[in-house]
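**Paired protein data**
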Amino acid sequence: MYGIILAGGSGSRLWPLSRELYPKQLLNIISDKSLLQSTFERLTRCMKENQILSITNIKHAANVKMQIQELTDNPVVLSEPVAKNTAPAIALAVKYILQTTGDDPVIIVVPSDHLIKDNEKFADTVRKGEKLAQEGYIVTFGIQPDYPETGYGYINTLKPLNLGYKVKEFVEKPDLITAEKYLKAGTYYWNSGIFMFKASVMIKEIEKLAPDIAKITNNVDFTKSKDIPFVEFDKMPSISIDYAIMEKSDKIALLRLESDWNDLGSWKSIYDVSNKDENNNVFVGHVIDEGSKNSFVYASSKLVTTIGLEDTVIIETEDAILACKKDKTQDVKHIYETLKKQNDDTHLVHKTVYRPWGFYTVIAQGNGFQSKILHVNPGQKLSIQSHNHRSEHWVVLNGTAKVILEGKELILSPGHSVDIPVKAIHSLQNPYKEDVEVIEVQKGDILLEDDIIRYEDMYGRV
């Protein structure tokens, strides 16, 4: 069995903690591991580590690879050059597995951002699903609903099979009255977004039901490189696997997921699965409260004080605060979309941004300048790079920094500084055992992360 982890979502409903460049699957929300890492570990109960493939957008690839590398030595990560939804991603991931294994394995596809605590029951369901997949079915894993949820899609079932049910139809997220009807009918399940199939079965269904995807996929040769060419992928239609295949195929079977499941699609859903105090409150971080009930307060960088709240959610980050009624958390995505339309970077990135070499925090910015603190972990180094539109000034705060500047090597201790002119080829490195912290002051007309030309990079980002 092989596994495909879909790790390219934006997590807009968990703003402001989730951002476009650091979405919810990369966050440690419930435990000391991210949702992506928990998903990877869950799959290792069913297959070997080297049989798990993650596919993500190129803007998340470095962080996805970095997180999986904490769990296994040689992570397999495919990078989509542009976002084209789940059908093209799954088609190419299946093609990669077929070409690199020379076999026709059963494959399970899982989102990277779901919470499942009972991993043993999950593995038991997967083993049952494998039997259905070997019979030629595309298996979808359904969740038995216990209340009329309007935030999920539903799957309606027909007569029972030896295992599971034949699927009648997929239906969109319903209004409350319709959801109540689905609950009473007893034949409807929540769509978990988890699928299982034999590789050859999925490829044939894609050829039959989504020939435009199949045609482009056939032009990609993973035996030469695991890079997905932009020229080919950009021609892909942007369509989900549900619309492209699942809603059209006559080979769909549903198996009830026997474990717990939560897609953590809103702050309310996180509140629901969190441990609560005697007043049904959830407080995370530095929070002081007087007399609140049934509320969720998350403080990431500041003291947050609350008095007399009821059914309220407050989320504090370095650069944004969300406050809403608990039953309105699904609407957070509208705020996210508004920020995106206004070109407000608050939807895009945090002030603290994680990189394979460590992280940086933006501490000040204004017209023509930006300052950051760079934190470089032991044994790591930034790419050898240049910038067309900005100069940089580095001052070492802690540790010993190795600087490469136009082919020359400089060793800087705390208090020492160096100027990096526009277009100069340079690198900041830490070959030592202690962390390095550097203040970086950028000056220029354009101060964007895109203004980086990489010549050499130990993380494969050239």
User: Anything to note?
Assistant: The two ends are 33 Å apart (CA to CA).
